[in-house]
Amino acid sequence: MGFKNTASNYGSIAKWLHWTTALLFLGSYATFYYKEWFTQERAPEGFTALQLHFSIGITVAVLVVLRILWRMTNRVPDLESGSKWVNFFVRCGHYALYAVMIIMPITGYMGTGGSTEYFFIFEIPKFEDTAIFQNIVSGGFGLSFEEFEKPFDFIHKKILGEWLLWILILGHAGAALFHHIVNKDRTLLKMTTGK
Q1: For the chain, does the N or the C end have fewer beta carbons within 10 angstroms?
Q2: How far apart are CA 133 and CA 148, in angstroms?
Q3: pLDDT for residue 19 is more than 90
Q4: CA dihedral (67, 70, 71, 75) positive or negative
Q5: What residues contact residue 2 under an 8 Å CB cut-off, 6+ apart?
Q6: Are 50 and 44 in contact (CB under 8 A)?
Q7: What does the alpha-carbon distance between residue 74 and residue 82 come to, in Å, rounded to a whole number?
Q8: What's the CA gap between 21 and 15, in Å, rounded?
Q9: What is the pLDDT of residue 171?
């Protein structure tokens, strides 16, 4: 298996970026729900889980940028045979996933009232403390962080986090399994064994 994509398979870099992003998204959800379901408010373990959630989110943002750059500079393996409409919806689903993978970390960072202790190695200042917020949002638009944060928090948690991302992930995984089990084509194999 080579590093680059071919007409029939994804290369090792695309596979690594895909599966690492998928695992990090699951880790991000796990840390958030651990905090929500199993810790007391303001408990140290809740703070740790939240910092891990923030750190994973920032890592996802970096990986998604790398994924997009890699996708722009590499061919995409040919789609398995299907109607124009099926292939159209496949592309729409992929674009929607990419959009959400970009919007989730951005809205998470912009709607967070605390700094991120990135995997407890170094600190990333909260958006409220950045020059962009101070000069443009606060200085230019006259918004407080509380006013600014509400729509970003709503988009991140309620629209994307609770519903849309899960629908896209389950649709993506379900389509891959449908291709593998029902259509018996190579769609899933292109991103796994390549055989």
Answers
A1: C
A2: 9
A3: yes
A4: negative
A5: 11, 12
A6: no
A7: 23
A8: 10
A9: 92
Structure tokens, 107: 């809205």
> Residue 89 above 80 pLDDT?
yes
- pLDDT for 60 beyond 80: yes
DSSP at 76 = P
Neighbours of 172 (CB within 10 A): 16
The overall longest dimension of the chain from CA atoms, in Å, is 58
Radius of gyration of the chain (CA): 19
What's the pTM value of the predicted model, to 2 decimals? 0.90
State how far Cα 93 lies from the chain centre. 14
Length of the chain equals 195
Determine how β-strand 122-124 pairs with β-strand 116-118: antiparallel
Q: Is the model's pLDDT at 65 over the cut of 90?
A: yes
DSSP string, 105-144: HHHHHHT-SS-EEETTTEEE--GGGSHHIIIIIITTT---
CA distance 34 to 45: 9
**Neighbour tally for 3: CB within 10 Å:** 11
SS3 assignment for 155-181: HHHHHHHHHHHHHHHHHHHHHHHHHHH
Kindly report, residue by residue over 120-167, the tens digit of the pLDDT. Answer: 999 999 999 999 999 999 999 999 999 999 999 999 999 999 999 999
The pLDDT-based confidence of 1 (bands split at 50, 70, 90) is low
